[in-house]
Amino acid sequence: MKSKLELGFTPYRFFSKSGKGFTMIEILVAIGILTILVGIGLLMSMDVYRGYSRRSEQDTLVNILQRARSRAMSNVRQSAWGVCYDNSDPSEPNYVIFSGGSYGSALIKDILPANPAVVMDFSGAPSFLCSAGGIVFQQLTGNTSAMTVNMTQGPITSVISTNVEGTIVW
Description:
The chain is α+β, with helices and mostly antiparallel strands. The protein has one domain: minor pseudopilin epsh fold, CATH 3.55.40. 29% of the residues lie in helices and 25% in strands. The protein is built from 1 helix and 8 strands; from the N terminus they run αββββββββ. The protein has one helix spanning 24-73, and strands spanning 81-86, 94-99, 109-113, 119-124, 135-137, 147-153, 156-162, 168-169. The longest helix has 50 residues, at 24-73.
């Protein structure tokens, strides 16, 4: 009877008895490299998602400001139109488009959800909060008060501002 070594069998080879195949070390190295690549891919995809989320929220706010300014300049309902940020429930903040001179006296209010993961800084626009009355675009002219809103998510900050003529810069 022949021994296993004489038959061409090596004890550390897998998949065939003829000695062709992968060693345990080769398999472990391949799995290690694959694990590192998947880990790097997950980290990069999370950064991409955070950037997308912040840009999406920025686009939403700019769109809402433009909508309110457009309604005011078009004299919809013969009224000024405004926008405010309602953070009375921090887990579900909202943007509110309203008609009239302030949020408190508004008859029409459109409520749009905001992203709670994006941190808003209203130090340059304290009137943007609903509790302060919101920012109002005057009818026909679109004039408003100057403001600056900073949106932060992670290490990146976006700045959205308006000037007294109603120009929105982002």
